[in-house]
Amino acid sequence: MDRSRAISRRKFVPAGLAAAGAAGAGKLLGQAAPARARSGRPILDSVDALIVGGGPAGIGAALGAARSGAKTLLIENHSFFGGVAAWSVGMQMNQMRPFGRPRSAVHELLIAKLAAYGEQAVALGEHEVWSNVEYLKVAILDALDEVRAGYLVHLPAVDALVERNRVTGVTVATKRGLMEIRAKVVVDCTGDADVAYFAGAETMTDPDQLMPMTLGLTLNNIPRPGTEAAAIVAAMRAGKGKYPLITSGFLEVKQVAHCNSFWINHAGTADMGRMDATDPRQRTEAECRSRRQALQMVQAIRDSENPNLRQVEWGSAGPQVSVRETRRVKGCYVITEEDAMAGRQFADTIGWRAGYVDLGGQTGSKLVRMKVHDVPYRSLVPEKLDGLLVAGRCISATHVGAAAGKSMGNCMATGHAAGAAAALCAQLGIMPRELKVARLQDKLRAEHVRLDIQDREQTNLRA
Ligand SMILES: Cc1cc2nc3c(=O)[nH]c(=O)nc-3n(C[C@H](O)[C@H](O)[C@H](O)COP(=O)(O)OP(=O)(O)OC[C@H]3O[C@@H](n4cnc5c(N)ncnc54)[C@H](O)[C@@H]3O)c2cc1C
To answer: Which of 126, 285, 332, 456 matches a 20 to 30 Å C-alpha distance to 279?
Structure first.
């Protein structure tokens, strides 16, 4: 938390960088010295809606805020957007079109940008989007550009600016030292609730139940037809004696969109005990053991008697492990397993979640079909802190309640709602907890979000 260094909006001049917006920020850094906050740190930008974290939730939030006319800035720690969708090097984005029907203008915008690159880039299932991640990374930029959302990469938020219990921006780490970004509303889409945590909001973690982390990998040079996914799984299972890091949990091998390569999802660190991705030492251990684990998986495949598998090449591995679970924000409502299984409806719904309760490779866990259930606006609003909304996997939910909302399409839906809410709050000059939800619901309906009960009942019948 950085309360001492925070300043009021009137006390700085958002000249240069701030006035030009994020898209031009790279050029302007070389010009006249930027305005400085009372902390002495340069002010990199000043916006209506600041979205921190560019995974499925952050993309939804940035598109939602910018489409609502807010001056929007999306910042991301990596050099590209996509979060787990990109790190997992081939994983399908589930619940992007549940029951084969479009779920919002924002989801459809991303699908359209991917589809523009043709069959090499994307394949659509009943509810899921399979993509080649390299096209996905560019398609996300295309979508952000279309709605004129600003964005900056290589920009981790490392602290929150807080004034009288209100988040007013973040401190970011750059190659030029620490800088500040000011915002009317901040949306925390970091997956780990970083901004909320830095700002002192109450967060929830279940250290004894944390789901495993997984380093996704791809395989190339696969003779097709003639090589089945099942044969690859069998080769890894057979190699477990020689290569002990290969997981004893689930192993899933699938084709990458229309490409002639396979990607592997698996139980990752499940055999290594519960590991917390926010703990620097545990995270390092998870990252390093996962790289060795991936190597051993490839070695086991290449050791196979099957001549097709002996020539398999290791294509790639994610830039980091994909993280299933860390902190969640304690919000004004906490979504539970019962809400998901009962298909609960809420008057303050801002979207819904469909698919499965997925504990992601935890030993003994099974996928359980849940009912389509509402996400109440209150689960995006921190219980006590103002100026902040959360979206994606760190919204207010119990351990299982969170697992019920993990699918990327569901995370994008909460992002969309949080982004639109941030834009409305900035426009009205109010705090997120003061927003009349009916106003947000009208906005979301205009964005083709199907909030109506009758519609949802129909989808449950078809599930
Ligand atoms: C191994 C694995 C398999 C999965 N399988 C599927 C599947 O098959 N289909 C499916 O739909 N879902 C799947 N999921 C779930 C889904 O991927 C996640 O729930 C979803 O990606 C969460 O979206 P998010 O935007 O909240 O977080 P993330 O995808 O984690 O994105 C968070 C983003 O924020 C950035 N960030 C974090 N901290 C900061 C910071 N301080 N400053 C700036 N940027 C920051 C990160 O770099 C990242 O880009 C899987 C998840 C995992 C881990």
So the answer is: 332
Provide the H-helix boundaries in 154-262: 194-198, 229-238
What's the order of all strands across the beta sheet hosting 251-255? 251-255, 262-266, 217-220, 313-317
Ligand 1, atom 13, residue with closest C-alpha = 407
Report the nearest atom of ligand 1 relative to the CA of 95: 11
Question: Exposed (0-12), middle (13-18) or buried (19+): which is 369, by Cβ within 10 Å?
Answer: exposed
For residue 277, the CA-to-ligand 1 centroid distance in Å is 12
Q: What phi and psi, each to the nearest 5 degrees, are found at residue 219?
A: -120, 135
Most ligand 1 atoms within 8 A of CB, residue of 136, 137, 190 to mutate: 190
Q: How far is the CA of 12 from the centre of ligand 1 (A)?
A: 35
Q: Reduced to 3 states, what is the DSSP secondary structure of residue 46?
A: strand
181 lines ligand 1 (CB under 6 A): no
Are the CB atoms for 143 and 59 separated by under 8 Å?
A: yes
Closest ligand 1 atom number to CA of residue 323: 53
Instruction: Going residue by residue through the chain, which has 463 residues, state the pLDDT in tens, using 9 for 90 and above.
Output: 444 333 333 333 333 334 334 443 434 444 567 788 888 999 999 999 999 999 999 999 999 999 999 999 999 999 999 999 999 998 899 999 998 899 999 999 999 999 999 998 999 998 999 999 999 999 999 999 999 999 999 999 999 999 999 999 999 999 999 999 999 999 999 999 999 999 999 999 999 999 999 999 999 998 878 889 999 999 999 999 999 999 999 999 988 767 788 999 999 999 999 999 999 999 999 999 999 999 999 999 999 999 999 999 999 999 999 999 999 999 999 999 999 999 999 999 999 999 998 887 666 667 788 999 999 999 999 999 999 999 999 999 999 999 999 999 999 999 999 999 999 999 999 999 999 999 999 999 999 999 986 566 555 544 4
Question: For a substitution probing ligand 1, which of 80, 254, 406 has the most ligand atoms within 8 Å of its CB?
Answer: 406
